[in-house]
Amino acid sequence: MVARQAPETTTSELIATISGRVPTRNLHSLVLWQLGVAIVGGDYPEGSILPSDTELLARFAVSRTVLREALKTLAAKGMIEARARIGTRVLPRRRWNLFDADVLAWHFETGPDVDFLRSVAEVRIGIELQSAALAAERRSEAQAAHLVALADAMGEATTAQEFARADLAFHRAVAEAADNPFMASISTLVEVALTAVFTISSPVNDGTKLAETAAAHGAIARAIHDRDPAKARDAMRAVISDGFARSAERMAAQG
Questions:
Q1: CATH number of 11-95
Q2: Average of pLDDT values for 122-134?
């Protein structure tokens, strides 16, 4: 396989930082990161057999316990399967849990293509349009005011990370106002997608795009404040579609 050294800040750690969590970096997380990225990146293709435990132990210089825990974690994510007398096989991508935060982060770490970004945007549309509509019907006065304030904060951001934090907080607040526990439980997909899009293309360095993006989120906030589910849906669709288009354009420009 191609050796992949963990960068100073991985996508998983960047997501944790922006979302307000403490990034985890220990032996288990490092082995898990390198194996996960190698599998997603195709160094270990679907259907292939991973190197033996002896080889992996020598490569990572960790204890057998650490290696086994990393392999168990990958198996729980649907990425590998151990079989007696055969070894540990990489499972087909259709078996992988793409809603898992690590699996998503590894896709963005290896450089997603436009088709993958489009798929993520399509799933977000399926989830977040309904979330916005429910928020318009169920939000409290405090939640409506909070959404307006978060949209304003996006327009006032001076760094990409400030913008990303406000953006993430806004979409979380919409899910909370929807008052549906399932909406909140699948917010990981939104969290990873927003952070990844931020790394590909942030509007902060373009004053016009920043103002447009903040205004688009303001339109969602106003529709929710006015208890207008139809407008909330339309405004959320516009935000997600614009984010995808901006990222796809940047990726095309980079070749």
A1: 1.10.10.10
A2: 93
